[in-house]
Amino acid sequence: MEQLYEILNHVDGFIYPNEIVLQWGILIVLYPFITGLVAGAFILASLERVFKIKVLRPTYHLALLTALAFMIVAVLPLVSHLGHPFRAYEIMMTPHFSSAMAIFGFVYLWYLMVVLLLELWFDYRRDLVVWSNESKGIKRRLYKILTLGVTDISPKALAWDEKLGYIITVIGVPSAFLLHGYVGFIFGSVKANPWWSSVMMPVIFLLSAMVSGIALVMFLFMVISWIRKVKIDMACLDEIGKFLFLMLILDFTLESLDQVHRIYEAEESFEILHLLVTGKLTYTLFIFQGLMGTIIPLLTLGFFRVHLPKEKLRKPMYFLASCLVLFGVFFMRWNVVIGGQLFSKSFLGFTSFKLGMVGLEGFWMALAWMILPFLILSFFLWLVPPWKKHAEQSPSDIEV
Amino acid sequence: MGNERIKDSRRNFLRKSAVLAGTLLVGSATKPFTAMLFAANEPDKFQKWYAIGIDIEKCIGCGMCAKACKSENDVPKDPFYYRSWVEQYTIKNDGSMSVESPNGGIDGFTQSVPEEEIFKTFFVPKMCNHCYKSPCVQVCPVGATFVSPEGVVLVDEKYCMGCSYCVQACPYGCRYLHPEKKTADKCTLCYHRLKKGLNPACFEVCPTGARIYGDLNDKNDKIHQFLKDHNTQVLKPHLNTGSKLFYNGLTSEVR
Questions:
Q1: Does residue A159 lie within any of the structural domains?
Q2: Quick one: which of A2, A218, A208, A196 has its CA closest to A100?
Q3: Which positions in chain B touch A23 (Cβ < 8 Å)?
Q4: CATH code at A87?
């Protein structure tokens, strides 16, 4: 409450008296960010399987496991932010279908249970059976449970695994689009808020999701290769870089279009939004999201299309580009979620937002939510390492 | 025998499912706008259907309405939560505008603009517009916010999960998350008083009779006279919220 009294002194112009409190804080920034990483990572995986870009093979299982690890966490900040977290199940029991938010639970479960878990299970079933016979102790038990009692690894059964897995991936591509396009719609459909209300919002969310997901897998692929002390597959890395570049162009173009459209139409809300982006959002929009998260990676990856420098230089630049893109997309979410609540719906003033360090909505908690999926991913990589899968070991994977 | 029974019940099940799905499909096709697009409630002709009229020309900015609302409805006393408040608009000679609402107008107003600079000044009392195509009802993911048969927008606090989506969706800033209850809270048009035949608190205390409420279904009601006598306007009409709060003397500066 003291914090609110402090904010009261930092109100610019006139805001409706109920608008001093910011309803959605950093946890709701994390929600579209994490969900976007899931959708993006999955789409990268589907490039290999559905669109047959074989050079991406080394990242296929990593991308899927990453998507799963982040998907498990995606819903947690959301639920913990609720006033009554224990009533969250009501959204599944009595969904109010005119609400854009009502089907979130179903979209989430569909994606988690039907797409990610099933696909991974079909992919790993053979290995789980083999590993459950080879290993000992707790691992053996875990593998046994994960096979769900299906131990048939005859060629016929494996062919079925392949077939079903493929079908699920094909279903998964539109599902990933649905998942994140839908998240964009939750914001884009709020007509009371001109910063959110845009038909472009789902599309922009989707493209930035792909950008961030691809960047995350690129980042992880490099880090994991380094930890495992194996030579990184440069052909694969270059290919990821190529897709990241393509997606960045699309994302940048559409986000710019959205802004150009706003500026040119200059509707009722134009003045206040202009003040918003040139004032409260200057750093996060122009510097963090625009320059660092978009322009620099775009120029770097674009330069690689013209001239491919030596591996020694390329690797750190890819690494830097992926980090910058992740940083930029995080601030894109920040600018949408926080930015959309800073100005008054009276269009006459601003409230302010200060991120606290402690507490459920604080910086440390947000950081914990952000670290958790990496821990879960580490567990997955320990339990079901993609590089130990049958026929997965490429020559470059042999330990050096 | 057993097989046949299973087949039979399966056939029955499929048939029933098909009928159910068909009914739902046809049903949703016949009323697509009310069922899916808005959370619109058609007025029931035999019920009271409340609307509110506020006469800006009569408001003197005493803030009694906002004060009475806080005491009657157990609204937190901190200056961040209001079901009802008053805004002071001051248009200056140079065309610029100053808007203020210190503590929602509860403690009254002082004019911060020197008198010689004032072109005109007036007060605008604000409260829930009890929209009949209300965005807040539309977005509630669990249906905790609903429209009563009398056209009053209410929140079921035992059901609300506190996601704040409705607070985001209200274009008029009429909602807040109750700091203790952790659920959405808003003006109920003093529903508890209406049900006893009493006036809502803010209407009861207004010394100039600047606000009235009444039954839109009753052609003899005072709200109809109000709408007939004045050129009224609602806030943000372009948002098509179906606001039932009609202002007399509303100018384009007010949002």
A1: yes
A2: A196
A3: 164, 167-168, 177
A4: 1.20.1630
Q: Do A346 and B81 touch (CB under 8 A)?
A: no
- The DSSP call for residue A351 is -
Rounded Cα gap, residues A65 and A41, in angstroms: 9
Q: Determine whether the interchain pair A102/B79 forms a contact, defined as Cβ–Cβ distance below 8 Å.
A: no
Best of A4, A346, A351, A360 to mutate (most B CBs within 10 Å, chain B): A346
Tens of pLDDT along chain B (255 residues)? Answer: 455 555 666 677 777 777 777 766 665 555 544 444 455 556 666 789 999 999 999 999 999 999 999 999 999 999 999 999 999 999 999 999 999 999 999 999 999 999 999 999 999 999 999 999 999 999 999 999 999 999 999 999 999 999 999 999 999 999 999 999 999 999 999 999 999 999 999 999 999 999 999 999 999 999 999 999 999 999 999 999 999 999 999 999 999
- Rounded CA-CA distance A143/A139 in Å is 6
**Chain A residue closest to B87 (CA)?**
A16
- CB-based contact, A294 to chain B, within 8 Å: no
Contacts of A398 (CB under 8 A, 6+ apart): A230
**Assembly ipTM:** 0.92
Structural domain of residue A375, as residue ranges? 23-250+357-397
Query: Is A272 part of a structural domain of the chain?
Result: no
- Give the span between the Cα atoms of A373 and A377, in whole angstroms: 6
φ/ψ of A281, rounded to 5, equals -105, 10
Burial A8-22 (b: 16+ CB within 10 A, else e): beebbbbbbbbbbbb
Q: What is the pLDDT of residues A178-235, one digit of tens each?
A: 888 999 999 999 999 999 999 999 999 999 999 999 999 999 999 999 999 999 999 9
Residue B89: closest C-alpha in chain A? A14
Whether chain A has a CB inside 8 Å of the CB on B146: the answer is no
Q: Is residue A192 part of a domain?
A: yes
Our count of domains for chain A comes to 1
Distance CA A179, CA A35 (A): 8
Report if residue A50 sits inside a domain.
yes
Cα B121 to Cα B42: distance, rounded to the nearest angstrom: 38
First vs last C-alpha separation in chain A? 58
Contacts of A155-162 with C-beta under 8 Å, sequence gap 24+, read: A158/A126, A161/A122, A161/A123, A161/A125, A161/A126, A162/A122
Closest-CA distance, A87 to chain B, in angstroms, reads: 5
Q: Is the pLDDT of residue A4 over 70?
A: yes
**Is A330 in a helix, a strand, or coil?**
helix
Amino acid type, B36: M
Q: In this model, does residue A398 exceed pLDDT 50?
A: no
| pLDDT band (50, 70, 90) for residue A114 | confident
Does A17 contact B79 at a Cβ distance shorter than 8 Å?
yes
Indicate the DSSP class of residue A268: T
Minimum-distance CB partner of B182 among A83, A88, A348: A83
Distance CA B120, CA B108 (A): 18
Q: Which of B73, B95, B91 is nearest to B83 (CA)?
A: B73
What are the residues whose beta carbons fall under 8 Å from the beta carbon of B196, sequence distance 6 or more? none
**pLDDT tens digit sequence for A264-308:** 999 999 999 999 999 999 999 999 999 999 999 999 999 999 999
Q: Helices marked H in chain A — which ranges?
A: 2-8, 26-49, 57-81, 90-93, 104-109, 118-134, 137-146, 155-188, 201-228, 234-265, 270-278, 296-306, 311-337, 339-342, 363-383
Instruction: Please tell me the predicted confidence (pLDDT) of residue B4.
Output: 55
Look at the domain B50-248 and name its fold. Alpha-Beta Plaits (3.30.70)
